[in-house]
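This is your field. Have a critical look at both lines of this record:
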Amino acid sequence: MKLTATVVATALTLSCAGALAAEPTEKDAIAMAERGAAMVKAKGKEEVMKRITSKDPEFVQGSLYIDMRDVKTGIVLAHPYNPSIVGKDLTDVPDANGKKYRREIIELAAAKGKGWVDYQYKNPTTGKIEPKTTYILLVDGVVLEAGLYKKQ
């Protein structure tokens, strides 16, 4: 009986660990952006910026994370993996394929308040430039961006 309980507990632990290691989904990206938006409304932009920068697990989970930019200026306000771009306007800097995706993000946010943008970006878990799709959500003048790296 004790052995069976141990086997069941081990199996449950492994299946839960596997679930946690699963690739993030579009639903995960939307949920993360919505958590960020709720926190911006409840506690302000500065608090969310601080949490993004400190890689708070609520907003940074491996290759899925949110960053924040000002919708009017395009200036990056917070990024968990690339602090060197914070404070910079990279609106017209293209990705590896020449796409000005940041401009597209700002324009989509201003026009519709939310949506998806596809581009190429460096994956922090692999270190490689990979195809990425990002859910963007406008809240209180800032754009929250939560992206997924696509399987090639």
In short: The radius of gyration is 18 Å. Confidence is low (pLDDT under 50) at residues 3-20. Residues 105 and 117 are 7 Å apart (CA to CA).
